[in-house]
Amino acid sequence: MRRTGPKVVINKISFLIVGSAFLTAILIVRLFQLQVLAHDYFQDIATREQYGYIELPAQRGEIIIKDYHSNEEFLLATNTTLNLVYADPTLIQDPLYVADKFAPLLFDIENERAADNERIEELSKNLPADLAEEELEELLKPLSDKELEKKFKQNLTQKLSEKQRKEILLTSNIEEESLAKIKSLSVPGIEIKENNVYAYPPQISSPSITADQIADYVKIPRKTLTTLLKGENRYIILDRKLSPEISEQIEELIDNDEKFLGMGLKEEYFRYYPEKSLAANVLGYVNRDNIGQYGIESTYNTKLKGVAGKFQTKKDSIGRQITVGESSL
């Protein structure tokens, strides 16, 4: 007769307790790793997601002149601020509705007439010499005020409707070796013009694959490049140098109608000369990049240019500033 050892009875409840204790230990270790060891890493991610940064342009120093006899001071150069209005087309659900409301506020007949004159001048340079006089007059006929207003509204609607950018400059002055590599790949939607690499998002079927192909040559991280190649049109400027009255009307529209989600105003700083042309040849002027040209503006540019600042503020889930949240300069 074969003899066997004693049977071991496994208590199911004991097995469950041991298993639960093991899983709990794993969870505790994992939570410790995420909350303690990797705390700084995830804190940085949360900060980047919850906070936005707005660059505050440097305000240029003022230039003041004093009368030798009366000691009276005159302000020759100072700064002024005017708003620009921008839009995020990806957030605008009804471009036609927005254009209907904004076109009357942004339309400037003098600017549109000047643009139409440029159109006519450019067109006249390329017309065939054998055109009949009637055809020539019809082609070079200026648009009426109503036609200009209609054209302005159509262009505004088109801008607000373009949710994908048509062209993106990825890099300029690329090295010859990298340039040759990109050319040899013949990637759809990628084009080289005068040592500049351009992307055309509507022609790119797979941004991630395209990014894998050219990221090393354009020196852009793959993840960043993939986002760029999608071509989301998140920011377009509709108009600049708005008058305070127009800015106020636009702000009221944005604040009181959800259909204007994606619209906003932003201050721009401009050099202003209160005394007009007084001492203009001595003062000089500043260019579009706020750099002094000639005269005092150029000689003392380093001292006058100021220092740019940064405004940090909390954002909501779609990137809008939370006005009651924490903020710092």
Fill in the keyword field for this structure.
single chain, 329 residues, alpha+beta, four-stranded antiparallel sheet, three-stranded antiparallel sheet, 12 strands
Please tell me about this protein's structure:
This protein is of the alpha+beta class. It has 13 helices and 12 strands. It has helices spanning 12-37, 39-50, 95-106, 109-125, 133-139, 145-161, 176-185, 207-218, 222-230, 244-256, 280-283, 295-299, 301-304, and strands at residues 51-56, 63-66, 73-87, 168-171, 190-193, 196-199, 236-242, 263-272, 285-286, 292-293, 309-314, 327-328. Strands 2, 3, 7 and 8 form a 4-stranded antiparallel sheet that branches. Strands 1-11-12 form a 3-stranded antiparallel sheet. A hairpin with a 2-residue loop joins strand 5 (190-193) and strand 6. Helix 3 crosses helix 6 and helix 8 (207-218) crosses helix 9. The chain starts with 11 loop residues before the first helix and ends with a strand.
